[in-house]
Amino acid sequence: MTLRRTALVVVLLLTVSACAPRQTRDAISSNEDRISALEEALFEATSTTTTTAGATPTTIATQITMLDFPDTVEPVAAIAAAVGPAVVQIETADALGAGVLYSTEGLILTAHHVVEGQTEVLVRLYDGRTLTGTVLGFHELTDIAVVMIPASDDLPIALLALGASTQVGQLAVALGSPFGFAQTVTAGIVSAVDRVVRGVTMVQTDAAINPGNSGGPLVDSDGRVIGINDIIFTESGDNAGVGFAIAIDLAFVVAEQIVAGEEVQLAFLGVGVTDAAGDNPGARVEEVVPGSGAEAAGIQLGDIITAVDGRSLTKSADLRVRIIERAPNDVVELTILRNGEELVLTATLGDTSQAG
């Protein structure tokens, strides 16, 4: 089975068709009671409001501090109690998926294929309430969409792990509505980071992701969202432990543009690269786009880009990962090798409209 065929199959798998059994309000309320009891028994949650540096008010998020849980509490139980209230079920006439609230303005991150073709969706909250959500927009390439419900200061909000370093082997917890079972929690590890799947930066995990998980969060041990669950690779149709979540930095860059009503553009350096050969891993520059940030920075044909902002590259695909997770007009520091000499250049990123 080819990669293209597999990817097509799994995208369809991760939303539940309208004929599938759906979680009832009573079931959701029972789940809420269970987790609320856990919260009360374990700790009195403290919350802090944080804003990403330089971000707009739409990025404000309330974080339940995971350190407030006693050491005796199992970490996945603590994560479920902290993040679960921010996870919503999204329903359309044809499908069912999940999403995660990330702003008291009522903004929900989800996957585009969950809401594809819709202008409004039914949003089922953690406490069983149902609201009409407006699809603000989407970006087909990255498969990110943003849904808005009425703003409220008491909306439970998940914290996004923007700029965090996700490590292979660390705990990964997926939340969503597989097969319509709301507030389902599965756990595993981060199997790989910086995977480029269908041109998109993904976090790979072996946490079980099934139809209905799409759009829900993949969360780290601190209760922060590190990705938006999107696809699985499988030849049987069943979960095979190879799931992928859209990296949260990329998802947020796209979401910010959707919320602003802008046409979504990804960051663009302006180079064509291949894997560097020999003892110096990285991205060998084979083309420099005229008028691009790369040309303005002084990058030349034959240069080997070995790091972006101090993060090493081992292959050419790593360069795309480092760039598209940034926003257009961001400034990046490029470490390059030129004729055996190491140089550091500064480049201002353009956007994909310059790609021609």
| Content-based structural category | alpha+beta
Distance separating the two termini:
33 Å
Question: Which CATH first-tier class of the largest domain would you pick?
Answer: Mainly Beta
Task: Give the CA-based shape.
Answer: globular
Query: In the CATH classification, which architecture of the largest domain applies?
Result: Beta Barrel
Looking at the structure, the CATH topology of the largest domain is Thrombin, subunit H
| Rounded Rg | 21 Å
Helix proportion range: 10-25%
Give me the side-by-side strand order of the main sheet.
4-5-6-9-8-7
Largest sheet: 6 strands, antiparallel, barrel
The multimeric state of the shown protein is: single chain
**Tally the helices: what do you get?**
7
Count of beta strands: 24
Number of domain units:
2
Taking all residues together, what is the mean pLDDT? 82
Strand-residue proportion: 35-45%
Uncertain regions spanning at least 5 consecutive residues? 1-13, 18-65
